[in-house]
Task: inverse folding
């Protein structure tokens, strides 16, 4: 066989390999790739409190386990998980855990109505995010997204999609025990052409 | 200072004022053109009108004003979103081959041509400059076959990567897009709509809820939502859906035949040939105006609709037969 023919065959094989790579790698929803924040210091911006009573510095929560959740009134899955987020804020408050809920692309009025309709906890911290700086710093693709931060201020977990009592409880327990829950994609996922 | 000097100074100041922001905005747009909007499909943050993209562009502008370099700004965005945020993969590391592959293909092609010329020259055959490089038929068949095979495999595999984000992850961030109304109760939809009265993107959910009430026969609840859709500067298809059903409801609920037909016609003017609107018009014509011949003509038109749902086709066919027979509407 001539080298030209070998080259032609190599070109065809390369085309097939490219096709497989494109189909398996580039078809992934970029929102589902592992967050580069995992294992990194958590962004800790100072944000206005939702009730307008002042600003809140997320860095002030160092030493506690922090659950940062991004939500909005127009987000249906957020409505599903709000009860469980509030319950987790209550249940884990005495174990040095703080749930922080940050409004994502929504007005303060709509967010307050949403919380009043669903569930609100006095143990949780509700913050606005003017200009979406916190959402950008956390790399939010869509909501709900929830981040788990250990007492040292390192992001050790991320949940994409609506959480529930089991996900929240088990993730917070894991962080309290020094483990790293990592990234969890909740609900049905599409990782490649086979799924 | 002379008048000329003053004029030059003024011109210089004007140029500084005019050129400064433009240059930094150009930089911002250039950076934005390289960054993928995280909630869009392939748009850059410079092109996308989404709030996420606008926020990111504002951040880019702020960082430029603070004196950061382009690389620093891009690195900041990638630090939270990964390299997937780059529209062009970096010409380094694991994605370097994406840039080198076309070059390699070109070099290989040139090498193949050169070798071919060389082989023909050394075998003593006529110079390639005086003959055409025509492969034998068997080579044509082999080459074409391989190309078709590679193409088929490419299409088959690449076509499979059209993936949906899980239902519980609202990528676009708007409840009206891509949500499954069957998975949500009427009460939940009412609550979401109540919290988003000023949000035009809520029309999708409003229509889904109104249609649900419509199908349940709860015209009173459906009416308010259809009216709200029409009051919100809706898209043509949304307005057409609302007019059509409002038309049926005023006929079916209040017995107002003429108003019903007028409203359905408004819907048809917006989406001509809509099978559902035509069918309702046929029913109102048959039952309200007691005109089976005119109704039969309309039903006949419905049946010409391509890809008509088989159940609908059966129902319309039955009505058509009855109307053609001059029967009164059931």
Result:
């Amino acid at each position: 066989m001539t080298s030209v023919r070998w080259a032609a065959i190599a070109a065809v094989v390369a085309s097939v390999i490219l096709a497989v790579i494109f189909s398996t790698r580039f078809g992934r929803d970029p929102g589902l790739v592992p967050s580069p924040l995992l294992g990194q210091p958590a962004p800790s911006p100072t944000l206005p409190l939702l009730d307008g009573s002042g600003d809140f510095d997320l860095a002030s929560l160092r030493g506690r386990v922090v659950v940062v959740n991004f939500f909005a009134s127009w987000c249906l899955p957020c409505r599903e998980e709000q009860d469980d987020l509030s319950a987790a804020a209550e249940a884990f408050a005495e174990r040095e855990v703080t749930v922080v809920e940050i409004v994502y692309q929504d007005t303060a009025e709509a967010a307050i109505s949403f919380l009043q309709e669903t569930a609100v906890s006095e143990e949780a911290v509700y913050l606005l995010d003017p200009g979406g700086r916190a959402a950008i710093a956390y790399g939010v693709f869509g909501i709900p997204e929830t981040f788990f931060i250990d007492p040292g201020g390192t992001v050790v977990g991320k949940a994409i999609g609506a959480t529930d009592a089991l996900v929240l409880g088990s993730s917070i327990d894991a962080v309290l025990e020094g483990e790293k829950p990592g990234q969890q994609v909740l609900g049905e996922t599409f990782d490649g052409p086979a799924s | 200072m002379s008048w000329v000097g003053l004029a030059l100074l003024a011109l210089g100041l004007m140029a500084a004022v005019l050129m400064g922001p433009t240059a930094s905005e150009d930089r911002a747009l250039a950076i934005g053109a390289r960054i993928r909007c995280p909630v869009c499909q392939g748009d850059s943050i410079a092109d996308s009108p989404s709030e996420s993209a606008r926020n990111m562009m504002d951040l880019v502008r702020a960082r430029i004003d603070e004196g950061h370099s382009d690389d620093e700004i891009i690195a900041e965005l990638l630090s939270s979103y990964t390299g997937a945020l780059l529209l062009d993969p970096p010409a380094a590391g694991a994605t370097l081959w994406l840039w080198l592959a076309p070059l390699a293909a070109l070099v290989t092609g040139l090498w193949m041509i050169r070798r071919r010329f060389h082989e023909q020259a050394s075998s003593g055959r006529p110079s390639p400059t005086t003959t055409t490089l025509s492969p034998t038929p068997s080579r044509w068949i082999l080459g074409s076959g391989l190309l078709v095979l590679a193409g088929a495999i490419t299409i088959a595999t690449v076509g499979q990567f059209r993936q949906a984000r899980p239902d519980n992850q609202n990528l676009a961030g708007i409840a009206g897009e891509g949500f499954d109304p069957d998975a949500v109760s009427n009460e939940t939809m009412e609550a979401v709509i109540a919290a988003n009265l000023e949000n035009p993107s809520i029309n999708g959910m409003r229509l889904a809820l109104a249609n649900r009430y419509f199908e349940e026969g709860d015209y009173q609840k459906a009416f308010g939502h259809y009216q709200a859709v029409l009051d919100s500067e809706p898209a043509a298809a949304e307005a057409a859906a609302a007019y059509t059903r409002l038309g049926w409801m005023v006929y079916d609920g209040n017995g107002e035949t003429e108003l019903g037909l007028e409203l359905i016609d408004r819907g048809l003017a917006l989406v001509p040939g809509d099978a559902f609107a035509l069918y309702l018009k046929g029913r109102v014509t048959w039952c309200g105006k007691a005109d089976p011949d005119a109704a039969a003509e309309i039903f006949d038109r419905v049946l010409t609709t391509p890809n008509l749902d088989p159940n609908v086709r059966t129902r319309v066919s039955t009505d058509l037969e009855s109307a053609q027979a001059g029967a009164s509407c059931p």
